[in-house]
Amino acid sequence: GQNIDQPTEMTATEGAIVQINCTYQTSGFNGLFWYQQHAGEAPTFLSYNVLDGLEEKGRFSSFLSRSKGYSYLLLKELQMKDSASYLCAPSLGNTDKLIFGTGTRLQVFP
Amino acid sequence: GAVVSQHPSRVICKSGTSVKIECRSLDFQATTMFWYRQFPKQSLMLMATSNEGSKATYEQGVEKDKFLINHASLTLSTLTVTSAHPEDSSFYICSARRKGHEQFFGPGTRLTVL
After folding, report:
1. Do A97 and B34 touch (CB under 8 A)?
2. Which residues in A lie closer than 8 A to residue B46 (C-beta atoms)?
3. Confidence of residue A25 (pLDDT cuts 50, 70, 90)
4. Dist CA B14 CA A49 (whole Å)
5. Mean pLDDT throughout B9-33?
6. Are A79 and A14 in contact (CB under 8 A)?
7. Contact list, A99 vs chain B (CB under 8 Å)
């Protein structure tokens, strides 16, 4: 079966850096997505990693190690609006279907 | 980014009725559309994968006769929840993908079955 693990909740302070880890065991792995979801809203795309290594995009960076089944999302210079759930989602098979982890609820405090 | 719409955004219905939810990709042709369900404080659960002109592929544990999916064109997919019951109350989200790109999510439909 497919299994994705990420912490359920994290807290951090405005201006700080936070790393959200994700480990996965899947079959037919193509790449890994990170999405942000605010309560009651649909997920919005943050990043996509296919190759091993770090992808940097502004305040957000994402890392992938395919051999270890491991990814992390790094958020820098945290802002209050970054309080949301962050979803780790491997993309699988020839349809690139996404299987979501439980999501990590991040709370940013002043 | 690409735009995906869903209609209706909210629906309240009586137990036993059927509810149809539409998902449209507004500015691109989607090779594949996906339907998800999300219960409060839980993550998205993939229900089915839908390709235009062919039968949907359902995930394990999802009843295909209860959740009817019709993918009539490259820009429209519908999900019909048949004979809805209170336990079907949930947030239903669709996404659309064009080949080589990420999935774009619709705004979701909140279904409440009384």
Report:
1. yes
2. 97-100
3. very high
4. 44
5. 94
6. yes
7. 46
